[in-house]
Amino acid sequence: MFVSEDGGLTFRPSNQGFHHQQIMAFAADPENDERMLLVLTNAQERILTTRDGGQSWSSAGMGVAPEQVRRVFGAPSGWWVSLSLGGLMTYDEKRAKWSKAGFVAPVNGAQVARRGKPAAPPVQRPFQKVVNDLAYGRGIWLAATEQGVAGSRDAGATWFEFSAPEVRG
């Protein structure tokens, strides 16, 4: 692993404590460049975070197996991972634990009353898409999934799908 302290003009090795380990995934905090997250192979502690630019590292592995991790993200609200088989997890630093995150927002009008009976309340289901990338805007998060783009207006708590654009040719 290499570190730059001058905006990428020069790099120096920073491999203390990383003997024969490989970095599978890496994320930096978009709000604080001193905070980073690593997912490692060939290591006793396989998910690590730092708050001091890599001077010291702490375990963040409880609740998710590194083999399940597809990508890691430094979101404005903290660390997120997309899982290889679909879905998202977020890290609770106070509890030092990962937990499943995100539900699919019920579609308005999807539950229709039948034969005079009232419509059942909409059922939330877990967000299970395979996420390839996340982007964060002021009022919306976007997830690039294998099935298209999903959006969240509540920092990943609920997700909705964008309709596919019509291609004319």
Topology record:
Blueprint: E1 2-3, E2 12-13, E3 22-28, E4 36-41, E5 47-50, E6 58-59, E7 69-75, E8 78-83, E9 88-92, E10 97-101, E11 103-104, E12 125-126, E13 131-136, E14 141-145, E15 148-152, E16 158-161
Parallel strand pairs: 11-16
Antiparallel strand pairs: 1-2, 3-4, 4-5, 5-6, 7-8, 8-9, 9-10, 11-12, 13-14, 14-15, 15-16
Keywords:
169 residues; mainly beta; 6-stranded mixed sheet; 4-stranded antiparallel sheet; 16 strands
Structure notes:
The structure is a single chain. The chain is mainly beta. The protein is built from no helices and 16 strands. The strands form four sheets. A six-stranded mixed sheet has the order 12-11-16-15-14-13, with no helix packed on it. A four-stranded antiparallel sheet has the order 3-4-5-6, with no helix packed on it. It has a four-stranded antiparallel sheet with strand order 7-8-9-10, with no helix packed on it. The protein is globular and about 65 Å long. The termini are far apart. The mean pLDDT is 86.
